[in-house]
Design goal:
The complex is a heterodimer. Chain A is α/β, with parallel strands linked by helices. Chain A contains four helices and four strands. Bound molecules: adenosine-5'-triphosphate (ATP) and magnesium ion.
């Protein structure tokens, strides 16, 4: 599991590499939330190009981050999910609530 | 139909075993040479069932999770069982977005994922006795 951050104006870009399941999600959540508080940003982009597995724990993770970001009036978007993860996002209707 | 091959494994309800279980199930299924998409669906569904056993079956103690994979000529059957808490209302539990643990940032999509990604899903459960999930997936060759 590897999480890296960069800032682009008022957007925090989070790049996740590895597998998101219930075992890893808690750590990912803590790292993202801590960084989001630290940086002078209001939007978030999660780059999923390096995520090679995700189950419903990832859906919970994305929805939770969306709630945080929208509570400060920002927008969350998801970048480059692999096909299997796209299928999961479609099923959970995340596609219609976050920008892809 | 007669099974071609069968495997059974048991492990403790530790979250680190979620990836162990899905890797084992997918590599067992791989002997039938299915497409990568089918293997990915199996991996996701197994992860859902095993995670449910770990977090909902044994919420405050450690227990045993059993996974059995049975390979038939053109499909695989996967059974995941715990001997924990059980489900009070299976129909309600299967509803999309229903979760008894919103506090854990669960989305309530696990059963919906299993149902969509696999070809069949059966749930047997008794409160205080445990839960048994039986899923099948057609293994068409690539
Ligand atoms: N093995 C089990 N033992 C006891 N209860 C279970 C078990 N599996 C599922 N449940 C119950 O069924 C509900 C729905 O399960 P489902 O997997 O659909 O959602 P979830 O696990 O709550 O959230 P998600 O899977 O999206 O993270 C759970 O919240 C839980 O109450
Ligand atoms: Mg679940």
């Amino acid at each position: 599991m590897d999480i890296s951050f960069s800032r682009d104006g008022n957007t925090l870009v989070v790049s996740i590499k590895g597998e998101i399941d219930h075992h890893t999600a808690a750590m990912v959540r803590e790292r993202i939330d801590a960084r989001f508080l630290m940086e002078p940003v209001k939007n978030m982009v999660i780059d999923m190009s390096g995520v090679n597995f995700m189950d419903s724990a990832g859906i919970g993770l994305i929805m939770g981050r969306m709630n945080r970001v929208s509570s400060v009036g920002g927008k969350l978007s998801i970048k480059s999910p692999k096909p299997q993860i796209k299928k999961l996002l479609k099923l959970s209707k995340i596609e219609s609530i976050v920008e892809m | 139909m007669k099974p071609i091959n069968r495997m059974k494994t048991e492990f403790l309800s530790k979250s680190v075993n979620e990836s162990f279980a899905r890797v084992v199930a997918a590599s067992f299924a791989a002997q039938a040479d299915p497409s990568i998409d089918i293997l990915a669906d199996i991996r996701t569904a197994v992860s859902e069932a095993v995670t449910n056993a770990i977090i909902h079956g044994y919420p405050d103690k450690e227990g045993i999770v059993v996974m059995e994979c049975i390979l038939y000529p053109d499909y695989i059957e996967i059974i995941i069982e715990d001997f924990g808490k059980g489900i009070e209302d299976i129909e309600k539990a299967k509803l999309p977005l229903y979760t008894s643990r919103p506090d854990l940032e669960r989305s309530g999509m696990g059963f919906t994922v299993m149902e969509t990604f696999m070809d069949s899903l059966e749930v047997e459960s008794e409160q205080g006795k445990g839960t048994k999930i039986r899923m099948t997936k057609k293994l068409v060759n690539r």
